Amino acid sequence: MDETRLEQLEQEVAQLKARLDRLEQQPVADTKVEPVSSVARPAVRPAFVKKQRTPVVKKARTRDEWENVLATVWLPRIGAIFAAIGAIFLFSYASMAGLISPAVRIGSGVIIGLLVMALGEFQYEKKRRELGVGLVATGTIVSLSALFAGMALYEFYPPLLAFLLEIVVLAIAYGLMLWMRSTALLILVSVTGFLLPFLQLSDEPNVFLFLLYEVLLFTAVCIAVLRLKSTKAYPVAAGIFFLALIFGSLTVNFETRPLMDEITLLCASLMAYLGTAYVGSRLPVTYNYPSWLAGGFVLLSLSVVDWSFVYGLAVLFALLAYVVANQTKDAWQNGVGHITLLFAISQLPVDTLSLGDQFRTVFYALVVVGLWFVERQQVPYQRFFGIAVYLMLMLYTIGNYEAYRLNGQSYAVSVLGLTLATAAFILLLVRTHGEAIWRKYWQVVLFFAAVGVFVTYTLIVMELPFYADLDQTDRSTTLSVAYILLSFVLVAIGRWRGTAAWRLSGLLLLSVSAVKLLLFDLSFLSLIQKAFVFIGFGIVAFVISRTYFKKRRS
């Protein structure tokens, strides 16, 4: 039995050896299997992926939904406004009929307004949000109207006490607004607070108190805007504050005001600029328009105050605008700084028709050159902004030339400034004419450059030492000769550089010279002047034409 079992084991071992030999003779395949992970590999992300906004499709409201919105949202708001107006009419009727005394009228108005605000808070706690907001708005309007009437109409208390009492009422409304997180109430508080006319209905407007009130309220509203992230209430609050600045500017401008009122107006406008710049940088807004407008109100305040060193304050504000641009990453704030620099130049304390007045043109020209070639503090479309300023500089120089000529004074400094700006304009186009930014506007920009060269060259000729001693006929002849020479120079530069713009400008100027000769010079020049000018024009025309024939043969 044991021998049989042993033979079976030997046979199995022999079979296993034979099988092992066959496996070793076959090629071994790599059958290694990597472990499968349950985490999907991230897709390869390209270097730049353009974000595409998914269009938001608003679902149309049904008739029942519109009915519910009208009854629960808009009806309480409209009712609040009408109830406040009705309360004001009721107090007016009671006053005219002699039913209640002014003191009782004012006191009851304030108390009723506060009670209505408390009722609004109660309705909000009962989950009637819009009704509660409407009642709080009604109570705020009634209380503020009663307090204002006590100060402006009946003079029961001075403006300072009215200021403090209204601050208390607005503080209550402000707290309720934050608690209810209501944008509508925020807008209402802004409107009712900023439009309280301390300035209009009093015999002696208190500009200091009025603007202090507006600045405090504007600060509180800005804090609420940031907490509620209300992009709708932000421009409304800024716009109402701008109305307050307009009221203050008109009062300071048309009345003799103390120094404190001027300082208050300037500080209030600065607070408006800094506040709107900060709030706009913290809100999800694409363009911070209120901040740019606030910069304009700072310039308005600087133009209203009667200080001799306003130009220095304008330079400081320009530096502040550049700092704000760097801190808020809003390049448009640099534009506020650029405009402020131009305003500072206009406010230089120099006499008209003087050498210092002419240096304004040089300063304007330096600003224009900076707009084109200084890379720091760039603003979008800055080159086009520089071209617009250059055109205004050219018109400013032309407009002042006649006044200096009638007074027999030299205009050389202003012409030097315009020459500097024109040379910078030509250099800009020579360096950057191939860039994509000029493709759509190249013809228009080139036209402005040609006009600038023509005007600058004309003023240079007029400022030649012998030009003032010539009579009218000799001056016209001098200009005609100068235009013909300039056209020849432009065509020569175009041929040398291989640029069609220069050649076309020269040919255009030569055409203008021909029209001037035929329509103007031909009528009153002497025979020798006509012969000289017309022969010179013909020689230049033949020389230019000869260069084109030579180019065609080559």
UniProtKB/TrEMBL annotation:
Highest taxon listed in the record's lineage: Bacteria
Keywords: Membrane, Transmembrane, Transmembrane helix
Pfam families named among the record's database cross-references: DUF2339 (PF10101)
UniProt keyword ATP-binding present: no
Transmembrane segments: 69-93, 99-119, 131-154, 184-201, 207-226, 233-251, 263-280, 292-325, 381-399, 411-430, 442-464, 476-494, 506-525, 531-549
Keyword Acetylation: no
Coiled coil: none
PANTHER family: BLL2549 PROTEIN
Name recorded for this polypeptide: DUF2339 domain-containing protein
